[in-house]
Amino acid sequence: MQGPLRGSVHRFVLGDTEITTILDGAFPMGISPPFMLDKSAEDVERIATNVNLPTDRLENNFVPVVVNTGDALVLIDTGFGKSKRDGGAGHLRPLLHDAGYAPEDIDVVFITHAHPDHIGGLWEDGDLAFPNAQLMIGRQEFDAWKSGDGIPEQRAENRAMFLKVVAPLEDKFRFIEDGDEIATGVTAQAAFGHSPGHMMVRVESAGQQALIWSDVANHYVFSVEHPESTVGFDDDKEMAIATRKRVLAETAESGVLVVGHHMPFPSVGYVQRNGDSLRWVPATYQLRI
Ligand SMILES: [Zn+2]
What we know:
seven-stranded mixed β-sheet, binds zinc ion, globular
């Protein structure tokens, strides 16, 4: 008996780019909290049961993305880093090898927001984990965490981590505004709320598009099917709900391919209307034929 086995590296081609999703880690947590804080225990149980999910726990997936434009290798978020490597996550850097890359190959590291599962892998044993990369982060995100303005009390530990991990790199960062291009055909877009300056990334190549929405929606049922529900992880809960509804409506309308940091690995799919609701539809072979 060898226990469960699953792949941790997945790649697809989009136009003239290659997009690789890498499972930094996965571990179980409760459902509510953090999700559906506005729902009763009975509602949560019913919603989970309806989609054949356990009613007391979920498995969160953590999935950084590598975009290869042909000219640049762009890493979107860095995972938890080495400190969590014995705790079910932090595997991005060793797994890069399985994707055919070395940490030194990464040209750009873009941080979508400063939560621990996105910034923890910036360093490895006291050195920059991706030593040749131009670091980038949203201007609004960096400024908020540096000043502490708009950072909720529950993020005190997270802010201490930011000050230790990200703030000392201020001189090395290029600061990104809404709509800025971080590589050819790769554009950062404001999606504030989950954190004060949270950004997502749109990839366009040869007439095709993908939206790497980072943490706009953080569970494929509890967030995508119930975007109005309150989520403990969201720093500004009302703004996060408004952003989630807006982005989900756009993705359902346009049919754009979505890559979501916390969607079930390989974390690639579509948002579709399902009556009055929405649903996450994992990509299957659409990208291969
Ligand atoms: Zn996250």
